[in-house]
Every structure is written in structure tokens, then in C-alpha cells.
């Protein structure tokens, strides 16, 4: 990255937390581990920290952070990364290559199941048995 851009990014100040519960994240997490309800956590914060917060706000705070923890972090690959290095060095792995198409053509086709009913307009409807020896 360009040095001037790096200096600009480093000069940017960190933003303050948007939630008033953020400083108490560890406290809320510990209380949830001790199986406290959101109502009990709300009361705990009111009594001990003098922070008035609704139980639904505590719930939303916990839910958002649970989603963040379960999310997988995605990053852009380096500019030097090519499609072949992402897929492996096999050129046949590239979609649209003739080797990949040929490999799909050589793949065995799945068996098509015979229908359970045989319809002939001049005959009554018959049920085919599942026993292959009777067919």
C-alpha cells in the first residue's frame, strides 16, 4: 500500500462504541454464562452500575454480538493471487476449460428409476412391483 495512504489510515481516530452497553460487554457475557435472564441483567446494571436499560436492549446487544462471533471473516486476496492459485494449480479446474467439460462428459449418468405405474389406454392401470426379478 502507498505510504501516504497508510499514514492517512493510521491518522484516522477510532470511533467510540455506539452502544452504552459496550463497556459492560464482559459483565453481560459472564451473567449470561451464569444463566441470568435479560431482566435480571437489566436489574443488575441498574443496581450496581446505575445504568437504566430495558431487557430487550440487553437481548439485542447479546444477539448482535453472537452473530458477529459466528460470522466468518472474509478478506480480499492479494493482487498476486490468480484464479489458478485459488482453485489449485490444475488448469482443468478452471470453469469452461476443455478438460473440465470433457471430465463432465465422461462422468457416468445416474440411473433413471422405472415408473411405478404403467399406463396403456387399452389396458387397466397396473402397478409395477419393486422386485426387479418380476419385471
Overall strand count: 2
Structural category:
mainly alpha
Query: Strand count, sense and closure of the main sheet?
Result: 2 strands, antiparallel
What Rg, in angstroms, do the CA atoms define?
Answer: 31 Å
Principal-axis shape = elongated
Q: Helix content range of the residues, please? A: 40-55%
- What is the spatial order of strands in the main beta sheet? 1-2
Helix and strand pattern: HHHHHHEE
Total DSSP helices: 6
The end-to-end distance, rounded to whole angstroms, is: 71 Å
Low-confidence segments, given as residue ranges, are none
Strand content: under 5%
Mean pLDDT: 78
How would you describe the overall organization of this protein?
The chain has 135 residues and is mostly helical. The chain has a domain at 16-70. α3 crosses α4. The mean pLDDT is 78. It is elongated, with a radius of gyration of 31 Å. It has helices at residues 3-11, 25-33, 38-48, 55-70, 83-87, 98-106; strands at residues 117-118, 126-127. The longest helix is centred in the middle third of the chain and has 16 residues, at 55-70.
Brief descriptors of the model:
135 residues; mainly alpha; 6 helices; 3% strand
In short:
The chain is mainly α and 135 residues long. The chain is 44% helix and 3% strand. It has a domain at 16-70.
Amino acid at each position: 500500500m502507498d505510504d501516504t495512504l497508510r499514514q492517512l489510515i493510521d491518522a484516522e481516530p477510532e470511533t467510540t462504541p455506539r452502544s452504552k452497553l459496550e463497556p459492560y460487554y464482559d459483565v453481560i457475557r459472564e451473567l449470561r454464562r451464569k444463566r441470568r435472564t435479560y431482566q435480571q441483567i437489566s436489574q443488575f446494571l441498574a443496581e450496581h452500575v446505575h445504568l437504566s436499560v430495558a431487557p430487550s436492549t440487553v437481548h439485542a446487544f447479546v444477539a448482535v454480538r453472537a452473530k458477529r462471533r459466528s460470522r466468518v471473516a472474509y478478506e480480499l486476496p492479494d493482487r498476486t493471487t490468480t484464479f489458478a492459485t485459488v482453485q489449485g494449480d490444475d488448469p482443468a479446474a478452471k470453469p469452461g476449460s476443455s478438460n473440465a467439460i470433457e471430465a463432465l462428459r465422461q462422468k457416468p449418468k445416474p440411473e433413471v428409476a422405472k415408473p411405478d405405474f404403467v399406463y396403456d389406454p387399452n389396458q387397466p392401470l397396473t402397478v409395477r412391483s419393486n422386485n426387479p426379478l418380476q419385471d
